[in-house]
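This protein record is not my work; I was only asked to verify it. The record follows directly below this note.
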Amino acid sequence: MRHWFLALGLLGSLSAQAQSPVWALHGAHNTVYLAESVHLLKPGDSALPAAFTRAYDDSSQLVMEMDLAKLDTSNVSEWMMEHGRYPEGQSMQQALGADRFARVVAQATTLGLPLEQLSVLRPWVVALTLTDLMYLKLGYDPDSGVEEQLVARAHKDGRATAGLETLDEELGQLEHMSPEDQARFLELTLQDLKDTGDETDQMLSAWRSGDSRALAAQLSDAYQEFPELYRVLVSERNQHWLPQIKGYLAADHNVLIVVGALHVVGKGGLLELLRGAGIACTPVLASAAAAVQAPSSSRH
């Protein structure tokens, strides 16, 4: 579930000339690297942009949205069952109505989500689940994503890890959306699933090359259409993370912070917030670095 909305991790840099998904912030005695993540990649196309190597090698701590190195997947399942189900006597069919529920059933059947599970889950859970299932169907693998690769390397190197938020903070944002916004989130998800493959291929190509203009053109319309979702998923979380990032800038060691790339850019993005606080953000070029390899590669 934590690998759900790939679009959150795809929007690139503020400047099309930057050509890097990694930014350097300089504290009094250290450097904090802010890296734009893609949470899912295909196993055969999982080498990360080379700037990640420079940032990782120059850091002694890896910080993510959640600390995946310490996250127990059974706890995720338990949380979802506790917070993402209707109480007895209620169902999604009642909440959505027959016509909208029928559309959800049709898509869920195509992706293999059993009807008996579907009826008791809240719309935001089903939206995440269907998105996750679609990416798995297209060949994307959570274990090949940016964070999972870096966590595997950090574990091997004995490197410290940390998170900017808890599971309750990350998914609780969706849980507390109004029933109307949850239903709309699910409806927009159903509309977008049919174009997932082609759009994701284009986004990944632009992410690797640093072509943020192409990324912005593909992604900005979705959030203009649903600003409440942008507020819940991006803006409010950025405000919560900002003082923590400032705290890392006061440390005596270098830190690599990896978050979904949409958090980094645009109105209310971390770059805008950091620059507004007087903190310079410069792109990390990678001409002298090799790409980080996936854990399954031949480099050990």
